[in-house]
């Protein structure tokens, strides 16, 4: 037994940062698996190896009375044989749970520590050690760090900050320290404690917590609120608030916003070091008015593709998963059209913590074999490699001639079980951290074992690489060979051979064929033993894409569909998957990309971003195959780039470069401008520039700062905008070039004059000191009258009107509005004046003598009245309003406008067949005058309006269903509906093709129009009529369906559910009518024809009527009186049927058998008693007849024979057994209940055979020879008897007997 060695604690060599042990190493996981399986049969000794260990760093929250206990768990668990024991160190010293209080406990059988109610004394560097007699395994060193958040250093009095409107501003924060570092943000806090976060495009917070306003507006003033910096700890879930800041903003005093060039407020350091695999944020915060736009660039290279993103409105460049190739110079540019462009450069250097290139792996060797461990790591700076054995540095171990190391590798030659079974540790470290691996060498002497035998059946597809699993274990490593169907497989050494045996023991067959099907045996052998295991290999047909997708070209907004189908082995299920540019497609993303039931892929409303290579993958559980196609989407152009401007005093030449037309040539460019008057607002200044031009000159207005951008247009549409030009064109001032537009003069009340205009935008001011000069003069019709021009100054350019009170009513004025600025008056100052009027008043006279001179029809009447005097209108006389109010319409009256020079009118808005109240009043442009006395007119009936909600649906191949609602304006009592049918062929309309269909039932709102041709379009004209004739026509079109094959009919969706209505019931019939329903699946599948199913209530089966092809109703006959029935209507469309809900109805009359005793419990006994009495009476009659015959001495045979009548034609006489005298009973016909033979025939038993009253000739056929003589003697040994049954002749043979009748 190997003795346990005392080993120094490994702590001083471990840096304070940690790394994970290589538990994810595949060889290590396989080894664990092998050991667990093998341990079932034999105990394999091994050094310990850790399967659970703590992370590099753990945070904890110090316990308190008012806080829930959050215990700290330091995991440590190892495997090994014998089971390892555990020890912990803290800060390099032995740490024992027995010496601590009950807060610290170690899990039994494991090394896991749990620290309850953690305190500040628990902070430190911990490491777990697992040890048995074969080695010592070490965990990561975990730094247990106490989390905390300090408080702000604040003043008692809030700080006041005063700033001018439009200027940039930075407010300092000085956030508290914390572990982990807290997140810093700013809030706006009200007096009642309510808080809102501060954010927006003009507001930024830098990594130090300072708040930056790019430019301050009046809305940023805090008022009664305060700005406050806040720090939040996600781990502790608590935040602290800093000193309150009161922000006071002084207005600029100018209508135009203050403009300032970009000013740097915060940028990241010029030299930035980023860690490989992590993210880095580069800040570029600029202030200015208008808000500067930030653009990022990288010298001599593009920004890292797919790993860069912008945040905080472009002020922060974030690079994710930084790689060494991301090193370089990055630049940000800030521009707002004012002054020069601000820029800042950053040099990014990428370094790295150590990372594995080749990590050591667990090794199991037999004695006398060599073992080499590799520990190759990368990192910047280059890591330092250290080796340890059982936690002891390699330099501190005794010399060993069989062990040598070159720094990155350590080799042990001719390993020995009791000497070299150890744990080996490798540590790679630099200034940024370290990585640490703990592995072991286990020297064993074990017979060959197959720990994972071949599967019972292994499968592969033809042409692929087939694999038969056979994982072996042993020390030394077993040699593996294979047999197929009892024959040894010859495996050629070297790559590329058809058969290969891998290091783990698996057999690989390259290019498998159907000849490889068979039984395979794996043989594992070493010097201690041999094992065998077998399994079968089955080869399947490979999957083939039979219809690959095709290349597609579409324009943006169109849909594209890729189709793909494949075949596979009958025993394999094939699935179709899709990739785009090698990446899986997220189906349903934005509702645009989805896979259909037939596995086709549809991209709806495609954009240029959808262009790419699409891959169809046909996958089974054994193989995959793929086919590619390309989607090209012609989209709007990309925005132009490198927009520049060359400025002249009142012109600018704008230059640009195209940036890709997205597969559709550029047709034109559009130049847009933005000014300092309206920052961020963009308008077209020139369009229609040919797509081949890369520059254009535009005219500018005086005293404006211009910034330009360009858009490109192709046949698909207009591109997004380019970045603004870095140059700002500032023009010199000049006088205004124009006066305001839309000048009007109009009073708003009877005593004023209001002069209005459209305010001129600042771009038309052309200089500072802009104002309006308003002039007006009364336009007296007397040319000799004195006219005095008056004027007023309006200094606020936003204002668009001037009111002059105290003016006479409705007097003409000539007015002007002239634009001025500090340079001078407008160039259009001498433009003609605009004529207008002062305010109007209400007219004061009503029209008189309103009469109806003629009633033309139900809607139209001719009216006449006396006109009002023009001076009574008191304004601009517009004319007369005729107001018509039909009875029942008490709301807004119907109105007709009549010119001012008319005193009569034909009015056609009356309601037919109603009483109408009519008034006439004068009006001017502002007021209505008094109305005339009311005139009452009763109108006759008129033609109705058109029917409403008129719809037509196909009912199969030969009919159309028409539905409607009555006219909204019946204009009288409706009498009929008339339907005309026309045939439509393209633009030609033929018809009517049949006599009109007239409907007299005004409650009917649907009809089936049968007898139509398949696949034909019909136009239906429908009229409602009154006594005044037809009304307006309602028109609808519908097409019958085409003839279909049986397969197509089977695919039709089911028709809608019809509604059944029952009426007209009698004793034995009922009328069923129905309304077709619309299909739930969409569309209007109403049913091609219908039939009715009915049954007596409680019966299991249904009786159905014949199909109704012409109408929507049918009459059902053959019902029983007074009987409850169930009915339902069935709609048929192709091969589909839809049954409507069941309706119940009882026929008229009394039910058969109804009476006072019907259904009584003793009714059956009464019937039985009557039958018994009838039977007794029949027996008595038979006995009486027999006795009467016996009294006769003889009878006249000839007379009897003369009176003998032939049997009815349906009589079928059964043969008689002469010996026994038994006569079978005649059969009863089920159709009429009559005995086969004479209706009066008696049932005679054997006693009557000797009666002299009987004649044997009765039983013979009158057309055949007689078998009996007069005395009844037998005249032959054999005789044939023939009887007729339904005109067929039946012959029977009568056997002879040894006696005669007496």
UniProtKB/TrEMBL annotation:
<dbReference type="InterPro" id="IPR036116">
    <property type="entry name" value="FN3_sf"/>
</dbReference>
<feature type="domain" description="Ig-like">
    <location>
        <begin position="152"/>
        <end position="231"/>
    </location>
</feature>
<dbReference type="GO" id="GO:0007411">
    <property type="term" value="P:axon guidance"/>
</dbReference>
<feature type="domain" description="Ig-like">
    <location>
        <begin position="262"/>
        <end position="349"/>
    </location>
</feature>
<keyword id="KW-0677">Repeat</keyword>
<dbReference type="Pfam" id="PF13927">
    <property type="entry name" value="Ig_3"/>
</dbReference>
<dbReference type="Pfam" id="PF00041">
    <property type="entry name" value="fn3"/>
</dbReference>
<dbReference type="GO" id="GO:0005886">
    <property type="term" value="C:plasma membrane"/>
</dbReference>
<keyword id="KW-0393">Immunoglobulin domain</keyword>
<dbReference type="InterPro" id="IPR013783">
    <property type="entry name" value="Ig-like_fold"/>
</dbReference>
<dbReference type="InterPro" id="IPR003598">
    <property type="entry name" value="Ig_sub2"/>
</dbReference>
<keyword id="KW-1003">Cell membrane</keyword>
<feature type="domain" description="Fibronectin type-III">
    <location>
        <begin position="846"/>
        <end position="942"/>
    </location>
</feature>
<dbReference type="InterPro" id="IPR003961">
    <property type="entry name" value="FN3_dom"/>
</dbReference>
<feature type="domain" description="Ig-like">
    <location>
        <begin position="447"/>
        <end position="538"/>
    </location>
</feature>
<feature type="domain" description="Ig-like">
    <location>
        <begin position="542"/>
        <end position="632"/>
    </location>
</feature>
<feature type="domain" description="Fibronectin type-III">
    <location>
        <begin position="943"/>
        <end position="1048"/>
    </location>
</feature>
<dbReference type="GO" id="GO:0098609">
    <property type="term" value="P:cell-cell adhesion"/>
</dbReference>
<feature type="domain" description="Fibronectin type-III">
    <location>
        <begin position="1054"/>
        <end position="1153"/>
    </location>
</feature>
<dbReference type="InterPro" id="IPR007110">
    <property type="entry name" value="Ig-like_dom"/>
</dbReference>
<dbReference type="InterPro" id="IPR013098">
    <property type="entry name" value="Ig_I-set"/>
</dbReference>
<keyword id="KW-1015">Disulfide bond</keyword>
<feature type="compositionally biased region" description="Polar residues">
    <location>
        <begin position="90"/>
        <end position="99"/>
    </location>
</feature>
<keyword id="KW-0325">Glycoprotein</keyword>
<feature type="domain" description="Ig-like">
    <location>
        <begin position="48"/>
        <end position="139"/>
    </location>
</feature>
<feature type="domain" description="Ig-like">
    <location>
        <begin position="354"/>
        <end position="442"/>
    </location>
</feature>
<keyword id="KW-1133">Transmembrane helix</keyword>
<keyword id="KW-0732">Signal</keyword>
<keyword id="KW-0130">Cell adhesion</keyword>
<keyword id="KW-0812">Transmembrane</keyword>
<dbReference type="Pfam" id="PF07679">
    <property type="entry name" value="I-set"/>
</dbReference>
<dbReference type="GO" id="GO:0030424">
    <property type="term" value="C:axon"/>
</dbReference>
<feature type="domain" description="Fibronectin type-III">
    <location>
        <begin position="739"/>
        <end position="841"/>
    </location>
</feature>
<dbReference type="InterPro" id="IPR003599">
    <property type="entry name" value="Ig_sub"/>
</dbReference>
<feature type="region of interest" description="Disordered">
    <location>
        <begin position="88"/>
        <end position="116"/>
    </location>
</feature>
<feature type="domain" description="Fibronectin type-III">
    <location>
        <begin position="636"/>
        <end position="734"/>
    </location>
</feature>
<dbReference type="InterPro" id="IPR036179">
    <property type="entry name" value="Ig-like_dom_sf"/>
</dbReference>
<dbReference type="InterPro" id="IPR026966">
    <property type="entry name" value="Neurofascin/L1/NrCAM_C"/>
</dbReference>
<keyword id="KW-0472">Membrane</keyword>
<dbReference type="Pfam" id="PF13882">
    <property type="entry name" value="Bravo_FIGEY"/>
</dbReference>
<feature type="transmembrane region" description="Helical">
    <location>
        <begin position="1162"/>
        <end position="1185"/>
    </location>
</feature>
<protein>
    <recommendedName>
        <fullName>Neuroglian</fullName>
    </recommendedName>
</protein>
């Amino acid at each position: 037994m190997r003795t346990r060695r005392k080993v120094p604690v490994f702590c001083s060599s471990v840096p304070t940062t940690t790394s994970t042990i290589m538990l994810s190493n595949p060889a290590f996981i396989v080894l664990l698996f092998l050991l667990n399986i093998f341990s079932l049969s034999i105990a394999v000794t091994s050094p310990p190896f850790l399967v659970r260990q703590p992370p590099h760093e753990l945070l904890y929250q110090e316990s308190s009375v008012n806080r829930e206990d959050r215990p700290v768990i330091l995991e440590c668990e190892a495997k090994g044989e014998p089971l390892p024991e555990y020890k912990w160190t803290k800060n390099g010293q032995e740490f024992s749970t027995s010496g601590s209080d009950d807060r610290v406990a170690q899990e039994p059988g494991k090394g896991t520590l749990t620290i309850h109610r953690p305190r500040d004394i628990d902070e430190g560097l911990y490491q777990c050690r697992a040890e048995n007699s074969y080695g010592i395994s070490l965990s990561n060193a975990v730094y247990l760090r106490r989390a905390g958040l300090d408080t702000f250093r604040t003043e008692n009095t809030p700080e006041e900050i005063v700033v001018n409107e439009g200027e940039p501003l930075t407010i300092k924060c000085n956030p508290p320290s914390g572990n982990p570092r807290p997140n810093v943000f700013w809030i706006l806090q009200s007096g009642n404690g309510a808080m809102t976060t501060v954010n927006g495009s003009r507001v930024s917070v830098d990594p130090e917590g300072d708040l930056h306003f790019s430019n301050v507006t009046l809305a940023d003033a805090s008022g009664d609120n305060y700005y406050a910096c806040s720090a939040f700890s996600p781990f502790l879930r608590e935040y602290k608030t800093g000193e309150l800041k009161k922000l006071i903003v002084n207005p600029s005093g100018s209508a135009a916003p203050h403009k300032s060039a970009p000013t740097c407020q915060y940028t990241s350091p010029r030299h930035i070091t980023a860690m490989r695999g992590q993210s880095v944020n580069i800040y570029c915060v600029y202030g200015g008015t208008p808000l500067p736009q930030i653009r990022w660039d990288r010298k001599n290279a593009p920004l890292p593709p797919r790993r860069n993103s912008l945040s905080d409105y472009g002020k922060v460049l974030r690079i994710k998963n930084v790689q060494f190739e991301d090193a370089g110079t990055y630049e940000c540019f800030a521009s707002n059209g004012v002054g020069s462009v601000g820029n800042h450069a950053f040099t990014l250097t990428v370094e790295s913590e150590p990372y594995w290139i080749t990590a050591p792996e667990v090794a199991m060797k037999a004695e006398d074999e060599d073992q080499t461990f590799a520990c190759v790591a990368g990192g910047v700076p280059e890591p330092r490699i250290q080796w340890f054995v059982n936690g002891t540095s390699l330099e501190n171990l005794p010399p060993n001639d069989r062990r040598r190391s070159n720094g990155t590798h350590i080799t042990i030659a001719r390993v020995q079980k009791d000497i070299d079974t150890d744990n080996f540790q490798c540590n790679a470290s630099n200034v940024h951290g370290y990585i640490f691996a703990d592995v072991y060498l286990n020297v064993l002497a074990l017979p060959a074992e197959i720990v994972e035998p071949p599967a019972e059946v292994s499968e592969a597809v033809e042409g692929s690489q087939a694999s038969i699993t056979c994982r072996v274990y042993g020390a030394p490593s077993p040699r593996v060979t294979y047999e197929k169907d009892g024959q040894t497989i010859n495996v050629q050494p070297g790559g590329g051979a058809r058969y290969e045996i891998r290091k783990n023991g698996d057999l690989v067959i390259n290019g498998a064929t159907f000849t490889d099907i068979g039984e395979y045996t794996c043989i594992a052998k070493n010097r201690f033993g041999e094992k065998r295991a077998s399994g079968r290999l089955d080869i399947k047909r490979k999957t083939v894409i039979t219809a690959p997708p095709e290349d597609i070209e579409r324009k943006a907004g169109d849909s594209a569909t890729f189709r793909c189908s494949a075949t596979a082995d009958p025993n394999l299920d094939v699935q179709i998957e899709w990739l785009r540019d090698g990446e899986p497609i997220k189906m349903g993303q934005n509702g645009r990309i989805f896979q259909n039931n037939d596995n086709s892929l549809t991209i709806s409303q495609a954009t240029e971003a959808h262009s790419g290579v699409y891959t169809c993958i046909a996958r089974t559980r054994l193989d995959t195959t793929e086919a590619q196609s390309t989607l090209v989407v012609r989209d709007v152009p990309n925005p132009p780039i490198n927009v520049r401007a060359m400025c002249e005093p009142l012109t600018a030449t704008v230059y640009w470069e195209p940036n890709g037309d997205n597969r559709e040539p550029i047709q034109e460019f559009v130049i847009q401008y933005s000014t300092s008057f309206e920052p961020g607002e963009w308008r077209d200044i020139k369009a229609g520039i040919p797509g081949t031009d890369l520059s254009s000159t535009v005219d500018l207005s005086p005293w404006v700062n211009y910034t330009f951008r360009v858009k490109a247009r192709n046949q698909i549409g207009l591109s997004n905008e380019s970045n603004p030009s870095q140059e700002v064109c500032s023009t010199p001032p000049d006088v205004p070039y124009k006066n305001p537009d839309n000048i009007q003069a109009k009073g708003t009340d009877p005593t004023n004059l209001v002069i209005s205009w459209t305010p001129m935008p600042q771009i038309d001011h052309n200089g500072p000191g802009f104002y309006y000069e308003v002039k007006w003069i009364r336009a007296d019709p007397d040319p000799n009258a004195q006219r005095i021009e008056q004027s007023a100054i309006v200094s606020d350019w936003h204002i668009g009107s001037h009111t002059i009170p105290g003016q006479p009513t409705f007097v003409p004025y000539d007015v002007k509005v002239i634009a001025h600025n500090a340079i001078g008056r407008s160039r259009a100052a001498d433009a003609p004046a605009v004529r207008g009027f002062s305010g109007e008043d209400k007219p004061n006279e009503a029209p008189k003598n309103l009469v109806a001179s003629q009633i033309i029809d139900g809607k139209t009447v001719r009216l006449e009245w006396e006109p009002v005097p023009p001076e009574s209108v008191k304004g601009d006389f517009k004319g007369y309003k005729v107001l018509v109010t039909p009875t029942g319409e008490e709301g807004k009256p119907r109105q007709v406008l009549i010119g001012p020079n008319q005193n009569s009118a034909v009015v056609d808005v009356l309601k037919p067949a109603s009483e109408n109240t009519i008034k006439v009043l004068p009006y001017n442009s502002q007021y209505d005058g008094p109305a005339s006395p009311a005139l009452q007119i009763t109108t006759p009936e008129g033609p109705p309006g058109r029917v409403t909600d008129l719809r037509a649906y196909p009912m199969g191949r030969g009919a159309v269903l028409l539905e409607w609602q009555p006219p909204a304006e019946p204009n009288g009592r409706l009498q009929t509906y008339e339907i005309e049918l026309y045939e439509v062929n393209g633009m030609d309309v033929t018809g009517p093709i049949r006599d009109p269909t007239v409907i007299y039932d005004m409650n009917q709102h649907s009809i089936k129009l049968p007898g139509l041709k398949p696949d034909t379009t019909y136009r239906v004209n429908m009229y409602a009529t009154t006594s005044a004739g037809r009304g307006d026509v309602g028109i609808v079109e519908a097409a019958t369906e085409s003839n279909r094959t049986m397969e197509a009919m089977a695919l039709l969706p089911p028709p809608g559910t019809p509604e059944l209505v029952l009426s007209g019931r009698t004793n034995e019939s009922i009328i069923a009518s129905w309304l077709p329903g619309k299909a739930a699946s969409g569309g209007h599948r109403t049913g091609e024809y219908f039939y009715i199913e009915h049954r007596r209530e409680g019966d299991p089966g249904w009786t159905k009527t014949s199909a109704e092809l012409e109408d929507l109703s049918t009459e059902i006959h053959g019902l029983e009186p007074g009987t409850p029935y169930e009915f339902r209507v069935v709609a048929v469309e192709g091969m589909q049927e839809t049954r409507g809900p069941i309706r119940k109805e009882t026929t008229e009359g009394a039910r058969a058998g109804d009476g006072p005793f019907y259904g009584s419990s003793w009714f059956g006994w009464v019937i039985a008693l009557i039958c018994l009495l009838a039977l007794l009476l029949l027996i008595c009659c038979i006995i009486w007849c027999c006795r009467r015959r016996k009294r006769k001495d003889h009878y006249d045979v000839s007379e009897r024979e003369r009176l003998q009548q032939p049997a009815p034609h349906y009589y079928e006489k059964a043969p008689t057994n002469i010996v026994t005298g038994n006569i079978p009973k005649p059969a009863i016909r089920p159709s009429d209940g009559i005995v086969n033979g004479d209706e009066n025939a008696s049932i005679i038993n054997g006693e009557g055979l000797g009666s002299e009253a009987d004649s044997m000739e009765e039983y013979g056929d009158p057309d055949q020879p007689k078998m009996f003589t007069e005395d009844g003697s037998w005249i032959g040994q054999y005789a044939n008897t023939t009887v007729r049954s339904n005109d067929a002749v039946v012959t029977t043979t009568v056997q002879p007997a040894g006696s005669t009748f007496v």
